[in-house]
């Protein structure tokens, strides 16, 4: 069947239509050929340069009326070719979701024909339509776990990280079945599974197999080994002695006694006379010594004056008497110049 020459030659019309549909002339590539679909009906194909549409083509279908010499556009669109890159077949979300995909904000749709569950009650008689048929599993629940669901759960738990093949179970010396923190599950799972209630265990609050185990077993203990360091017992030295000087209370300084100043002029009273000079003033010989003082008195003591100034020099001195000595210890001072002059004027005894 010969190809329609009028429609085949209308290449410019087909490209212009493809560019109009694409919205960009650069998105339309080279011409890939023309195919006659029916009498006076031809389809032109153009390659596409759009990213992500590998193998897709632009198709523009042209037609003409009988005995007409002008082509008209029937349709234009982008379609995939035989080797086009296509998206996977669409599946409902309920069919695409897998274990582990559900997040706290998601709600799993109801699976009406779930093979894992069975009805929790059945109609036994017309007058008792809500009679419970399975008291162990379905009390108050519309559907309960069926045999198929229990078998799948048992296989999953046995082969998981809480089963007997887990590394912690292989290293454990005792299984969970003998642990005080193992809470057996009710029903047909009682002999095979339980819940761990040990806060020190990594399986706390999860379902574990009775043959599982960990290092937090209630009867697990470790062997007591000695220290790697040498045993150092304390040593007590009962021979050597340490000298300690225990400071005592400091001795109180003796209170100074007041010296009588009766009959003494203000000038003489302001001048402190050493003990030796006071004895000389009283006309006492140097051979007469003062009474013994306290052992700790290392400095000369002040002598209470018997007279004042020249009056003491004019009176006779009894050599059998000694001047009264004050117990107050005073530091020796240099006599004043005028006191020395008065001493020189006194008559010798």
Describe this structure in words.
Among the domains are: 76 residues; 49 residues, no CATH class; 80 residues, no CATH class. The chain is of the alpha+beta class. The protein starts with a helix and ends with a helix. It contains nine helices and eleven strands. The C terminus is likely disordered. The chain is elongated. The longest helix is centred in the middle third of the chain and has 13 residues.
Strand line-up across the major sheet: 1-2-3-4
Q: Classify the secondary structure makeup into a structural class.
A: alpha+beta
Task: Kindly report the average pLDDT value.
Answer: 74
Characterize the main sheet: 4 strands, antiparallel
Helix percentage: 10-25%
Q: C-alpha Rg, in Å?
A: 64 Å
Beta-strand segment tally: 11
**Relative strand content:** 15-25%
Contiguous low-pLDDT stretches (5 residues minimum) are 132-138, 278-291, 297-313, 319-323, 325-329, 339-349
Shape: elongated
Order of helices and strands: HHEEEEHEEHHEEEHHEHEH
Separate helix tally:
9
Distance between the terminal alpha carbons, to the nearest Å?
181 Å
Short recap of the structure:
The protein is of the alpha+beta class and 349 residues long.
Key phrases:
349 residues, alpha+beta, 4-stranded antiparallel beta sheet, 11 strands, 19% helix, 17% strand, disordered C terminus
Topology of this protein?
Layout: H1 5-9, H2 11-22, E1 28-38, E2 41-48, E3 56-63, E4 72-80, H3 93-96, E5 117-119, E6 143-145, H4 147-159, H5 167-171, E7 182-184, E8 193-196, E9 207-209, H6 266-269, H7 275-281, E10 301-303, H8 309-314, E11 325-329, H9 337-345
Antiparallel strand pairs: 1-2, 2-3, 3-4, 5-6, 7-8, 8-9, 10-11
